[in-house]
Structures are given as C-alpha cells and as structure tokens.
Amino acid sequence: MTMSQTPSPAPGARWAIPGTRWPVLRSRWAALAVLSTSMLMTILDGSIVTVAMPSIQRDLGFTPAGLSWIVNAYLIPLGGLLLLAGRLGDLVGRKALFIAGNAVFTAASLLAGAAGGPGLLIAARFLQGVGSALASAVVLGILVTLFTGARERTKAIAVFSFTGAAGASIGQVLGGILTDALNWHWIFLINLPIGLATILLALPALPRDRGIGLGAGADALGALLVTSGLMLGVYTVVKVERHGWLSAHTLGLGAVSLVLLAGFAARQATAANPLMPLRILRSRNVSGAYAVQVLTLGAMFSFQVVVALYMQRVLGYGALGTGLAMLPAAVAIGAVSLLVSARLSHRFGERAVLLAGLVLLIGAMGWLTRIPADASYAADLLPVMVLIAGGGLVLPALTALGMSSARPDDAGLASGLFNTVQQIGMAFGVAVLTTLAASRTEALRADGRTEASALTGGYHLAFTVSAGLLVAAFAVALTVLRQPKPVQDEQDTAPAPASITA
C-alpha cells in the first residue's frame, strides 16, 4: 500500500525503498550506525591531517605561515556554518541536509587528495569544512527525534560519544600509517569509500522528514549576521598565535565579531520568523550545559594537543609513536562512554555522572602539572590516560543535558547550536593554552633553562590553566544544572517518512 503518512513499523521490520523492490533492514540502530559513521569520518579527518602536515609542506611548497591554513580553512566554515545549517535542517529536512553535507565533504576529499598545489588544497579544505558543517549540524537533531525514550536515548548518545572519542585518536595513528606507507594524498582519499557508503546507507536507513518550511524561519539578515560573526570570530581565534591577544588585529576583528553576534541576538528578539528562537536558551540546564561544555572541551582538546606536543618536542616521540601513546586515552574514554555511562546516567542521572567525570578530569590535569622533562611513559603518562576516562562520563552527559529541551521542530537548531559551542570551546582552549605555553617557554629560555626544561615549564602552565577551567566547569555544573525530570520510557519509533511503500 502507498500512503503519505503511516505509523512507523516496529524496530527491525523490513521496508522496501520507495520505487524499488529492495528489502532494507530499517531500525533506529541502523540509523545510529550511519550517523556515527559520518561523524567518525569528519572527526577522523580533523586529526589525521595534523600528522601529515610536514609531508604536505614538503611536497606542495607551503610557507610556514601558509601551512596553518590547511587547518584554518577547514575550521572557519565549520565553526561559522553549524548554527545556520542546524536551523536549515529543521526548515528543509534534516535527512536531506545530512546527505548533502556528506556529498560535499566526499567530493571535497577527492579534490584535496588530487591537489597539486597549495591553493587547490586550501579551497578543498574549505569545502570539506562546509560539508562537515552541513552534515554534523543535524546529527544530534536526528538522533533525539529517533530515540525518544530516556533509556534508549542515553544508550544512543553513549554510542555516539564513543565514536567521537575513537575518531580523534584513530586519526593520529591512521595518519601516520598512511603517510609513511603510501603518501599524504591518502589521508583524504580514504574518505571516498566511507563517504559513499554513508550516503548510500543513509537513503534507506534515515527517516524522511519534510521540514517545517522556510517560511517558519527564513531570516536572511539573521543568517548573514550569525554566519559572518562566527566565521570572523573563529578566524580571529586561530590567528591569535601569530598576532597576539592584545594586538590591533585580534582586538579589532574580535570586536567586530562580537558586534555582529550582538546584532544577531537583537535581531532574533524582534524578527517575526527568527532563525534561532531565543526560547532554546531559557532552560538553565541547556544554557548551563553550554557553559560547562566551553570550559570542559577547551581543557580536553588542549589536553590532546599539548600532550602531543610534549611527547614530540620534549620526549622525542615520532608522529606514529605519539598516536599510539595517546591510544589508551581514547580506549579508556570509549570504553567508559560505551559500557558504563548509560547505566550510571540511568541510575544516578546525567548531572551526577557529569560531576564525577569532571573530578576524574581535574585529577588528570593535576597529575600533568608535575610531569618531568624526562618522563617515563608507564609511570608519568599512563596514569593520565586512565584518569582521562572521565571524558567518557562527561561527554555523553553534556550531550544529553544540552539537547534536553529540544523540540521536534527545532531539534536541528539545538544540534547545530550544541556543535557550535563545542567548536568555540575547542578553538578558544587551544588558542589560549598554546599561547600561554609558548610565552612561558620563552620566559624560561631567557632565564637560561634548557630547551626541554623550558618547554616542560610552558606545558605545566597550560595544564594548570586546564585544571582551573575544569574546576570552573565543576562549579557551574554543581550550582546551575539540575537533574532533568525523568522521561517516561516508551517504545521508540522512527519518525514516519513522507512516503512509504510497503
């Protein structure tokens, strides 16, 4: 039979793809696998590039200043378009935007893999950032509409968080392997089979959604203000290391970015059809989770970057060795998020689990503040890799709290906003902590300290500030967040597609 709207079948039922005779296993868990694979690809891409940058510079003739644009050209559109993309998913359909984003990302990966010069590679990286923003902005929105029961949603978020934890470390290891065994082109070309498989599987696995229509939020001026403000803000932050925090470049562009974002907020308060209804920020759990997220991810992402720098510049590890040394942290975070966090959250609540995870992370950063210049991996670094498992408690709990007030008609917006806050936290964390570490190192060199000692002293300062950020995150979580009222577990069903042929 054919109808415009039918009840969703029970999970695991076989549906036929409209217009074909292909039977397809259609379930929420198959959809989650597709969403997680897409996120794994984009997260992996963000970390895999850093390992191959010396080879890219050597082959394509990048200048030292130009080399940073391999990363910056990806981060700027990603951070700037997430909020807009999330809202567009609500308006035109989240499935369509997810598939479009993966298509753009996959095509841009082919272009990057074939690049023979700096200009083409930077352009391809910009397009990758656009594709990643379109796809990742709506992922959580799709997830929370698929999994409506409390227990099932907690499990799904735990699986999704595991994917994110795995992607960063797998990227470092895989980047070293591909670059050494083949060449740097393959760090981009490996995305082709993954991207194509994701698109093909998303067609039957993800539920169709029509969107609420552009008329419900077609705020062109608001879109221009928020996109330009966020892009300019991300650009300002990533250039801090070159210009300094108090330079005219940083202060001037930072002020313009804030003016644009303030104009966006004012516009949303008065627009007939706002791009971002401000009601989404009225929940203390949502706004509090965003604050905790900025502080926590600033510290955690800087952990990944600063510890990697310490291993390579002080201990003399190679790129592949650094990736392997960081692997226990990813395994610990992944195991806790996948096997423990959902059970603890269901029993004690996300707020309690978040606080426990933050305590473990504070312990990890506190341990790093005393790490010596001649550290032993087993005695000095491995305990940190165990304590960092607290991230496996923190990340799923933050995701659940940040998406707790999402309504079906603005789930994409909530997803885009959550990911935007995530990018801002990581960008600011890396910019602040690496700049502080570099300044402290220079001061210690001037005092006559050895290179290893000066570098270690700079990293000690970064770890101390990271611990302070986590303490502040704990204070916000303790005083602002409240455990959400339990949601009645129900038989989760996927949203009904617009047209089903069964």
TrEMBL record:
- Per its UniProt record, what InterPro entries does this chain match? MFS, MFS_dom, MFS_trans_sf
User: PROSITE patterns, from UniProt?
Assistant: MFS
User: Looking at the record's lineage, which domain of life comes first?
Assistant: Bacteria
MF annotations from Gene Ontology = transmembrane transporter activity
**Is the keyword Membrane in the record?**
yes
What keywords were assigned to this record? Cell membrane, Membrane, Transmembrane, Transmembrane helix, Transport
Which Pfam family is an annotated match for this chain, by its short name? MFS_1
Give compartment(s). Cell membrane
Q: How does it sit in the membrane?
A: Multi-pass membrane protein
Instruction: Identify the residues that the record assigns to the Major facilitator superfamily (MFS) profile domain, covering every copy.
Output: 31-485
**Where do transmembrane segments lie in this chain?**
29-53, 65-85, 97-124, 130-150, 157-178, 184-206, 218-238, 244-266, 287-311, 317-340, 352-369, 381-401, 413-438, 458-481
* GO CC, alphabetical: plasma membrane
Report if keyword Transmembrane helix is assigned: yes
Query: Sorted alphabetically, which PANTHER family does this protein's record hold?
Result: BLR6921 PROTEIN, MAJOR FACILITATOR SUPERFAMILY MULTIDRUG TRANSPORTER MFSC
Query: What name has this protein been given in UniProt?
Result: MFS transporter
Organism expressing this protein natively: Actinomadura rubrisoli
